[in-house]
Amino acid sequence: MSRIAYVNGRYCAQSEASVNIEDRGYQFGDGIYEVIHIHEGRFVDTDLHLARLARSLREIAIPAPMDDAALLVVLREVVRRNRVHEGIVYMQITRGVARRDHAFPRHVRPALVITARHGAAFPRDLASWAGSAITVPDIRWGRCDVKTVNLLANCLAKQKAREAGCYEAILIDRDGMVTEGSSTTVWAVDAAGVLRTRHLDDHILPGCTRAALTTLLHEAGIGFEERGLTEAEFRAAREIFLTSATSFVKPIVRLDGAPVADGAPGPVTARLFELFARHADGPAHNTANRLAPDATGRLATDAAGRLAPAAGIG
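Structure for Probable branched-chain-amino-acid aminotransferase, as requested:
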C-alpha cells in the first residue's frame, strides 16, 4: 500500500506528491517543521509540539495555515490512512510559492505538507537501547531555537557520526561549551553527581521531550540544573543521555571511542528512562488524541470521517 501524504489541502499517494519548484522551502529553506511521536496509536506530548510549531512560525513571521483543531484533524487522518500505530507524523510549513526573491512575498498562502511513517516500538531494554556519540564543532546559524528546515550543518554532523559508527554527534561551540546533539537534547550527570542540561537560549532547540522530562523531574522531586557544560566537564561526566521525540531517553555509553564512566547506562538515566516510558504509556497524557482501532484492527472514525476516541477515553 502506498503511503499517503497531505499536500496543500489534498491527500495523495506519497509517491505522487509534489510541491512547486518555486516553493520558498525548496528555494531558501524558508520554512519550519515539527515531528510528533506516535506510541500505541497515541500522539505523545501533542500540546508541547503544537506550541513549539506556533512559536517557530511566529519567529520567522509565517502565518499558521490553519488552527490547531483543524491541524489535529489532518494529522489524525494522515495517521489513519497510513495505519501507523508506532512511528511519527511529520509536518512542514513553508512561506509558500512565489517568484524567487529574498524578501518576503506579499499575499502568499503558506504551504503545508504532512506525512506519517511506521517506526520501531518504544524501547523496553535500556542496555540494548544505549548508543555511542562523537563530538564535532557546532557550525550552525545563530537561531537554533527555531525549528527550521535549514538543517545542512546538522546533516553534516550526523553523517560524521554515522561514518564513525555512532548514533549521534554532540556539538561543541567556539567557547568550548556543549550545545546539543545534531537532532537531540544533551543531558549529563557531572562528576559531582549533578544532573545538568544546557539552559535554553538562541543556540539550542527547546526540545519537547526535554520539556516533558523536566515536568516529570519536578513531579518526582528529582533535582537538576539548566546550566551549560564545558567540554572537559562533559568528558568527565558520570552519565550522558539524549532526549528527543525519536530518541526518548537514550543512554550514551561511549564518547569519541572512550567509555562514559564504566561504559554502561547509569542509575539516573535508568530512572528517567523508566519515568518517560510511563509517561509515554500513560492514559493521563494525550488521551484526547488516542487513535482507536475498531473491531477489524483499523483506526475507527466517526460519521464525519474523523478519528473516534478509544473506548473509555476522553
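Residues 126-281 form a domain with the D-amino Acid Aminotransferase; Chain A, domain 2 fold (CATH 3.20.10.10).
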